[in-house]
User: Fold this.
Amino acid sequence: MKPTVRVVAAVMHDAHQRVLVTQRTAGKPLAGQWEFPGGKVEMGEPEAAALRRELQEELGVQVGAARAMFELRHEYPERHVELSVWMVDAYAGEPRGLEGQPLRWEYPSALRELPLLPADLPIIDWLENTGLAS
Assistant:
């Protein structure tokens, strides 16, 4: 039986309506692929707290306002992922890769050109259909 991992993912945008994606570093599963920032929810941790913690640890930003948008499920060969997607409406600080991960600001239409994690692909559909205006 495959383990199930609960994950939060952040849709962060800049003044130009570009969204932030990060590249998975060597040593991680699916290294080299791009993803929306976020990470695992710890046992008993509220999702909003996990989102704030992960963005502080990975990017050095403080979330001011965020809202849960929708949930996804994806099955990888080794695990099931339950992904909670959050829109980050306000944050303080300039995102930087504190774990050595490259960052890119991209327009949603350009995200399909990147090797994005399969679990994150439906986020592109959502951005194209409703996206930052929701």
In short: The longest helix spans residues 47-59. The helical segments are 47-59, 121-129. Strands lie at 4-12, 19-23, 34-35, 38-40, 62-75, 80-92, 103-106. The longest strand covers residues 62-75.
